[in-house]
UniProtKB/TrEMBL annotation:
Protein name as catalogued: Malonyl-CoA-acyl carrier protein transacylase, mitochondrial
Segments for region (Disordered): 1-54
Gene that encodes it: MCAT
Residue ranges occupied by any Malonyl-CoA:ACP transacylase (MAT) domain in the UniProt entry: 117-426
Compartments it resides in: Mitochondrion
Gene Ontology MF terms in the entry: [acyl-carrier-protein] S-malonyltransferase activity
Organism of this sequence: Equus asinus
Length: 435
């Protein structure tokens, strides 16, 4: 029987601030025992640990398996349990997948389906999440995040400062959690959207949020992977002056040729092995180019030569999705090897090639490759929304801060965009008395 959406038991009083030590994997890497060996938790101390009444109320976003497996997972990882009796997003997806054939057939009607899009780094802004705190379990998400990260992500998201929030090590976890908190809002207001979801995609770090939403990994596991990814990318970005340049071109723009000449300019300036390449395919004639700052400045100065209509430096600290991020690959790979990744409950599309994931090993491999590969978002949009003429488009919801993915969708597929709605993470009427 499908869980009831109305009249759910409340979660009790507002969660108190977490005082527990942050979750840290044993020996610097996540490990699981092999075979049927008993699972043991790493040494622990302090309040708020497994078995603590407050910790038991903290939400782990995804219940991918039965409660017994949750108990085993908590024992191995010290991840918080889901609140008793709570209806979980992944449970709704799983129930929808095994429902009776007639209901499943109705769910597949294009006009009744939904697609969720998860934003990436660059969408962060001080105050994000403020409009979500009134919804069930959002505070518990942030309390769980505090345990995993070791700092108060909610405080940083709400009050900044912006410079600290913009740091790669901070903004990637912040966007990840804010996006899944927006899913909680959508689940509370329109549960049918969650049940009728047929596909999800996330931009760069947003892909991790999409996979957690789809049940491929648990919230705390996904967040820890994002933490490791963000810190490794932050460190890699500090090795050389680099960045990302948004370029709006024309049909005659030759992005590859422009990047080639920018690299030649850098070589002449004494930069060894310069990097300048397309890092994001957004929509027709719009690209983001990553590389050494010298190369990006060269492109800006010579924009008319390459028929660029507009260029803008992005507020990021490095040349993401290029080989300058290679040092970040191994730390992320080690974490992902230890995570029990599962097949998503709905289609999740990879940034690397735009195709949907078919196997858990596929997820682990491509998430690492994504760090040094261009984000093929335009190709992803075509893969998700391709359909026969006259077929209705699914409803699309952008879950997380900002509306950038909606703007991109409008330029990729105007008809699909007409069924687009953002799930706001900020609301002007919210005040600090809600906190």
């Amino acid at each position: 029987m499908r869980p009831q959406h109305a009249g759910q038991p409340g979660l009790g009083p507002r969660a108190e601030p977490e005082t527990a030590e942050p979750f840290l994997p044993p020996s610097g890497a996540l490990t699981r025992p092999a075979g049927n060996e008993p699972r043991t938790a790493p040494p622990q101390s302090g309040p708020g640990r497994h078995g603590n009444a407050r910790g038991s109320r903290v939400l782990a976003m995804n219940v991918r398996v039965a409660r017994g497996a949750w108990a085993r997972g908590c024992g191995a990882w010290n991840f918080p349990r889901p609140p008793p009796g709570a209806v979980d997003v992944a449970e709704l997806l799983r129930d929808a997948a095994v429902e009776e054939p007639r209901a499943a057939a109705a769910r597949r009607l294009p006009g009744q389906c939904s697609v969720l899009l998860f934003p990436g780094q660059g969408s962060q802004v001080v105050g994000m999440g403020r409009g979500l705190l009134r919804y069930p379990r959002v505070r518990e998400l942030y309390a769980a995040a505090r345990r995993v990260l070791g700092y108060d992500l909610l405080e940083l998201s709400l009050r900044g400062p912006q410079e600290a929030l913009d740091r790669t090590a901070h903004c990637q976890p912040a966007v990840f959690v804010a996006s899944l908190a927006a899913v909680e809002k959508l689940h509370h207001l329109q549960p049918a959207v969650i049940e009728n979801c047929v596909a999800a995609a996330g931009f760069s770090v947003g892909e991790f949020a999409a996979l957690v939403f789809a049940g491929a990994m648990e919230f705390s596991e996904g967040l820890y992977a994002v933490k490791v990814r963000a810190e490794a990318m932050q460190e890699a970005s500090e090795a050389a002056p680099s960045g990302m340049l948004s370029v709006l071109g024309r049909p005659q723009s030759k992005f590859s040729f422009a990047c080639l000449e920018a690299r030649e300019h850098c070589k002449a300036a004494g930069i060894e092995s310069p990097v300048c390449e397309v890092a994001n395919y957004l929509f027709p004639d719009c690209r983001v180019i990553s590389g050494h700052l010298e190369a990006l400045q060269f492109l800006q100065k010579n924009s008319s030569k390459y028929h660029f209509r507009r260029t803008k430096m992005l507020p990021v600290s490095g040349a993401f999705h290029t080989r300058l991020m290679e040092p970040a690959m191994e730390p992320l790979a080690q974490v992902l090897k230890a995570i029990d990744v599962k097949k998503p409950l709905v289609s999740v599309h990879s940034n690397v090639n735009g195709n949907k994931y078919m196997h858990p090993k596929h997820i682990q491999k491509l998430l690492v490759q994504q760090v040094v590969s261009p984000v093929k978002w335009e190709q992803t949009m075509h893969a998700i929304y391709e359909r026969r003429k006259g077929t209705e488009f699914p409803r699309t919801f952008e879950v997380g801060p900002g509306k950038q993915l909606g703007t991109i969708l409008k330029n990729c597929n105007l008809q699909a965009w007409k069924a687009y709605s953002p799930v706001e993470a900020m609301e002007a009427e919210d005040t600090d008395q809600d906190l």
